[in-house]
Structure formats: C-alpha cells, structure tokens
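Risk register update: the risk that structure generation would not scale has been downgraded. Supporting records follow, first protein first.
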Amino acid sequence: MTYTTKQDVLDQMGVERVGQIRGDKMIEFSSLLDKIDPAVAKEIITQIPEFTRSALDVFAGLVRTQNESNDAAVAACHDAYRTIIDTLSRQVEDQEIPFEQKRFYLEKMMEAADKMSRKDSENKEYFWKVVGACAAGVAVVVTGVLAVMGIRQAEVNS
C-alpha cells in the first residue's frame, strides 16, 4: 500500500496533526517512508516541528535513560566501597589494635579508594560509548529517512 495523502499517513500513525509526530512516532514515520509518496513525505517532513530537534530529543532521551541506570549502579558500588572504608577507618582508630594491623587496614582503605577511582573512570568511558552509540543510531535514522526520500523521488522522476 502506498500512502498518497498526508491524511492517509496521519491516520496510519494514529495522530491528528503533523505536529504530534515526535519521539517514537518519528521512528514509526521513518519505517513508513518507503510506502509514502515522496511528495507527501517531503510535505510532512517540512511540517514536522524541527525534524532534527525531534531526532535529537530521541537521542537525548536514550542517553538520559542510560545515564540514570548507570548512575544508580555506580552509586551502589561507591556506597559499598564507602562502607568498607568507614568500617576499616573505625578499626584504625581503635587504640587497642597494633600498628601493623592498622597499616594493613590503611592499605585496604587505599585499595578501596583506588577501586572507586577506577569505577569512576569506567563510568566516564561507558558514558561516551553510550553517547556514541545513540548518536550513531540517530544518524542512521536521519540518513535512512533522507536516503529513502531520495530513492523514492528518483523513482518518481524516472
């Protein structure tokens, strides 16, 4: 089936106005492009409020979701290390414990602090991987939309 009018496309997507095409509806619209008359697709894209901004909103939402999930995991990890450091710190303060044992506890505290630092570095690396993957996904969708429109327009012009 080819959608030959803007209203056909809107009906298929379950929206009343082009301005309602955002987020997940952008992805749905992209998947319909090969079935939409090129002139209708161009008309709709020019009416979508800031087409690029919508794609960037999807990107930002993906990054935000991943960040929130990752932040919770990192916070839990840091809390565990802080608990270990706090426990060892109390042991070091105990006057009854010999110096060698205190030195052992101090070394373990430093190991825990080093692990926290490594976790922070891993977190930053993970963040940039997520940003890169999400950016690539958005670029693929936008490129795909433009490519399909170009192909369809070439078919119509032939």
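Supporting record for the second protein:
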Amino acid sequence: MLATLLALTLATPAGLLPGSSPAIVSPTPQPATLTAVRHRPVHHRKVAPKIPHLHAWMCIHSHEAPNWTIANAPYYGGLQMDLGFQRTYGTAYFRTKGTANHWTPAQQMLAAERAWRARGFSPWPNTARMCGLRT
C-alpha cells in the first residue's frame, strides 16, 4: 500500500489529490520585450530666415567688403558694421558670438534689416547710392 501511495504521489502534480481536477492556473507573467521599430530617418533641414532686402544687402556687401568674415577695425563683417551698430541691432549675436565677422551672413543681414526698419539704408550712404537704393 505504501508503494502504491508513493507511486501515486509522484505521478500527480504537486498540490493535487488523487481524483481531483486540476485548477486553472494563469501563466506566470513574463517581462515585456521591446521590439525595435525602424523608422525612416528624418532629415531636419535648417531653413534660412527670410531676408526681405536680400538683393540690396548683397549689393552693399559687394561694395563694402571682399568677404563676410573681414575684421578691419573699427568695421566688421560683410556689411562693415561698427561696434555701436552691432550692439544696437545685433545684440544677441554680439553677446554670443562677438563681432560681426563671427556671425553668419544671414545673421549680419538680419541685424542690417533691424537697422533698416529704423534708419533705412543711411548707415551705408555711398554704397546704397551705388546700388540704386534710397537712403
């Protein structure tokens, strides 16, 4: 009898009595697995700011300086801006990048646009006249 009981105990799953039905047991939760999803690469293009008087600034630049990085004190950059001009119309650029010869051409032209709103092309009287612009 002991041998039969021992055989029966080994043959049944743990916790079940002979003749009883197995209980429904939920599966053990498994850790979530992450599946890598491939997306097409997103190419972020830097959009150049709109410069309303682009052609005017390019003409003034062509008469003022040979390049946008010229540092010929007391004038700097492609539009030959003095320090007072830079501090007034390019404050953020001047504070973060220094003089105009370290600014991008677009930044130099944006500072010039700010000046244009207040003063027109009068900071460049001779070159503006050569470019056919009213001062």
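Strands lie at 71-72, 75-76. On this basis the risk owner (M.S.) recommends closing the item.
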